[in-house]
Design brief:
The protein has 293 residues and is an alpha/beta fold. 44% of the residues lie in helices and 16% in strands. The protein has a domain at 2-147 and 183-206 and 267-280: Rossmann fold (3-Layer(aba) Sandwich). A seven-stranded parallel sheet has the order 3-2-1-4-5-6-9, with helices on both faces. Strands 7-8-10 form a three-stranded mixed sheet. Helix 1 packs across helix 7. The chain starts with a strand and ends with a helix.
Length: 293
């Protein structure tokens, strides 16, 4: 049985759906306060619901009983409830989950992580690295999927890539290569890692099929949509200055991530795609899907 933590999120729910399609037994870790519609959907797919909270180690012990693998997509960055923070959830809570899985005799822990942003220290990066170290010490087989920047976020209106109004904000000069990756492919990578000897005790850099700069991504959207985009840029120097003046941890994390993408995050994942049996989504595929072209 596979326990999925973060099962009501977009990535976690996709992982649950894919696992059930493969006929795997899935236990979805949820909170009593989770969206009822999302819980209903998980149940319709055939997932067993386990109520718990990463901040409550006792609840995690019960959730982990009898599971062989754990996949965690948990983060407080997207949705937070009272008492949630990067420290209590992304770091301490995830460590609680690793320890509960170890005590329950689980064989593998799969973490959705991201490449180290060591040039721009921030609490989320520290949390991911701390959880990875706990995984290494656990005695379980561990897999950390170092996901590149999600197309669905970083090439979307959420961060200023507003293809709906043909206006785009880019970070830095917009010329550094990034292996933008689809959330769907990250879900596939997590599912393919379960019980897979090729993913055992591995840190797996995982990006999309191409290294593209922000400006090249804009060119693809322009070609696909037949529209000309208005581009504005936030210089790296301005972001670095902003990083020294942030008023809260979340602002600092997003600024650090913007600086990281401005520097570029290239990856060559062809061997990984072959090893995990994944045909990746391209930026052009994504552009066509969101613009209806």
């Amino acid at each position: 049985m596979v326990l999925v933590a973060g099962s009501t999120g977009i990535l976690g729910s996709e992982i649950c759906r894919m696992l059930r399609e493969q006929g795997k037994e899935v236990r979805a870790l949820v909170r009593p306060s989770s969206n009822p519609e999302k819980l209903e959907q998980l149940s319709k797919w055939g997932c067993t619901l386990a109520y718990g909270d990463l901040k409550d180690p006792g609840s995690l012990s019960n959730a982990c009983k009898g599971v062989t693998e754990v996949i965690s997509t948990v983060t407080s960055m997207v949705s937070r409830q009272e008492g949630d923070s990067v420290g209590t959830v992304d770091q301490d809570g995830q460590i609680n989950l690793v320890r509960a899985a170890t005590e329950a005799g689980a064989e593998q822990f799969v973490l959705i992580s991201f490449p180290d942003t060591r040039n721009y220290p921030n609490p989320l990066n520290d949390a991911k690295r701390a959880v990875e170290k706990e995984m290494e010490r656990s005695g379980m087989a561990y897999t950390s999927i170092l996901a590149n920047y999600f197309m669905e976020t970083w090439l979307s209106p959420i961060v200023g890539f507003d293809y709906t109004s043909d206006k785009v904000v880019i970070y830095g000069e917009g010329n550094s290569p990034v292996a933008f990756v689809s959330l769907v492919d990250v879900a596939k990578a997590a599912v393919a890692s379960v019980g897979n000897p090729k993913a055992r005790n591995k840190y797996i850099p995982f990006g999309g099929p191409q290294n593209l700069s922000y400006r090249q991504a804009v060119e693809i959207f322009e070609r696909v949509s037949g529209k000309k985009f208005e581009i504005s840029a936030v210089p790296s120097a301005a972001l670095q200055q902003q990083l020294t003046m942030v008023s809260n941890p979340i602002e600092g994390i997003f600024t650090a991530l913007m600086l990281n993408v401005a520097d570029g995050i290239p990856m060559d994942c062809q061997e990984t795609f072959a090893a995990l049996g994944i045909k990746p989504v391209s930026v052009e595929d994504y552009a066509r899907s969101v613009t209806g072209s």
